[in-house]
Design a protein that fits this description.
The protein is built from 11 helices and 14 strands. The protein is an alpha/beta fold. The protein is globular, with a radius of gyration of 20 Å.
């Protein structure tokens, strides 16, 4: 166990990076000691904004990885950089927090997973909604058997990701965004997996883009993905990143004893219930990253490092979520069901 404050290097200077910095600043076991940017002045400015007086600015990842005081690397750069930067950090013996998606293709996905396993470092993927209060409430209800045995899990990620988003200019290009699921909807895929707790064995999907394509994406912006879990549960993921309405993250879980509809629950185990009961809690109802529970996520990573335990949200676990996203894209292109555990390369 590391018996000193762990040094954190933040790769990137965007809005997500700012929230990562704040979360690590609030943890008594960590200190942000480095920021990476293509523009050193930009990194220095971000350090100043957060009062990081002992933080150095870097323009080269090697500058960071060679430093002994860096124990954790948190990756908040554009999507296509996540895998190569994660591989480099793991190879240097650094623990890793990486924003989603962790890779944009099958080859890089497996390479990142392998690098972390070989280095035996800890990792957490930023499927931060696992720490959202609504998610915690639903997990507690499932553990208590309030819904009985699940048979259906539907989760929707619906948003209009346009020029309000600082990464929009690069995200709308396939080489940097990947797909609508990889760029955004993977949160919904991961949520379904987190609730069902069973491996997905079959994926079938359809996808399109609106006729006008006002947002200018060069890949399909809308998709419906059907999933069959090994436990027999059926799943459905609806995803749109060109929605002409406010952000909406929708959850519907159905079991033989009850159902959850976002923060509303109905259960046969509550005698006399005649309608949905609302639970007052914090919902994932905005795309604003400041709304996300990064503090809890980073505390979890730190605990995993200090106590030598593996995260439930590690890169190894996230591989399954990303396999489903890649399988969905392949199925939509072929019109055929796809096994997410088969070969998913681009050939």
């Amino acid at each position: 166990m590391i018996d000193r404050k762990m040094g954190v290097a933040v790769l990137g200077t965007g809005w997500v990076a700012g929230e990562h910095i704040k979360a690590f600043q609030k943890n008594p076991h960590t200190e942000v000691v480095a920021i990476l940017s293509r523009d050193r002045a930009r990194a220095e400015a971000v350090a100043g904004q957060h009062g990081l007086t002992r933080c150095f600015a870097a323009t080269d990842l090697d500058e960071i990885l060679q430093r002994e005081e860096v124990d954790i690397v948190t990756i908040c750069t554009p999507h296509h950089l996540h895998a190569p930067q994660g591989i480099a950090a793991a190879s240097a013996g650094k623990h890793i927090c990486v924003e989603k998606p962790i890779a944009l293709n099958y080859r890089d996905l497996l390479a990142l997973d392998s690098a972390i396993a070989q280095a035996r470092v800890k990792s957490v993927v930023s499927f931060v909604l696992r720490w959202n209060p609504l998610f915690k409430t639903i997990k507690a209800m499932l553990a208590d058997g309030l819904l009985g045995q699940l048979y259906y899990a539907g989760v929707d990620y619906l948003s209009g990701i346009g020029d309000w988003y600082t990464g929009y200019a690069w995200m709308r290009r396939k080489e940097y965004g990947g797909s609508n699921l990889l760029s955004a909807g993977c949160h919904a895929v991961d949520a379904a997996r987190w609730f069902v707790q069973s491996r997905v064995t079959e994926v079938f999907a359809m996808a399109n883009t609106s006729a006008r394509n006002r947002l200018g994406y060069d890949y399909d912006t809308n998709s419906v993905t059907l999933m069959r879990f090994a436990s027999g549960v059926l799943g459905k993921i609806g995803c749109s990143i060109e929605s002409a309405h406010p952000y909406f993250f929708n959850i519907l879980l159905q079991g033989d004893e009850g159902s959850v509809r976002n923060n509303e629950v109905f259960s046969k185990r509550w005698p006399g219930q005649t309608s949905w009961a609302a639970i007052p809690t914090i919902l994932p109802d905005t795309a604003e990253v400041s709304h996300h529970p990064f503090v809890d996520q980073m505390a979890h990573l730190v605990d995993c490092i200090r106590h030598d335990t593996e995260s439930h949200c590690s890169v190894r676990d996230a591989v399954e979520t990303h396999r489903i996203c890649l399988a969905s894209e392949r199925s939509a292109g072929s019109g055929q069901p796809v096994d997410p555990w088969g070969e998913l390369d681009e050939t």
